[in-house]
Amino acid sequence: MKKICYLVFLFSFFSFSQKKINLNSPDGKIQFQFELKKDAPYYRIMFGNQLLIDDSALGLIFKDAELQKNLQLGKPEYQEVDTTYKLVVGKTSEARNHYKEVTLPLTVKDRKMVNIVVRVFNDGVGFRYEFPEQDWKSYELTDEKTSFNISGNPTVYSMFWGSYDSSHEALYHIMPFNEIPKDTLMDMPGMFNFSDKAYLSITEANLRDYAGMYLKKKEGYLETQLSPLPGQEEVKVKAKLPHHTPWRVILIGDRPGKLIESNIITSLNEPSKIDDTSWIKPGKTSFHWWNGDIVPDTTFAPGINFKTNKYYIDFCAKNNIPYHAVIGYGGMAWYKSDASGYSVVGPATDLTQPVASLEMQKICDYAKEKGVFINVWVHWQALYPQLEEAFAQFEEWGIKGMMVDFINRDDQEMVNIMEEILESAARHKLYIQFHGSFKPTGLHRTYPNELTREGTYNYEQNKWQKKPITPEHDLNVVFTRMLAGASDYHLGGFRAVLPENFKIQYTRPLTIGTRSHMMAMYVVLESYLSMVADYPEAYEGEPGFDFVSEVPTIWDETVVPEAKLQSHVVIARRKDDNWYIGSINNSEKKSVSFSFDFLKEGQTYKATIYGDDAETDSNPNHIKIEEKTFQKGDKFQFEMASGGGLVIKLEPVN
Question: Which cofactors are required for activity (predicted)?
Answer without folding.
Answer: Ca(2+)
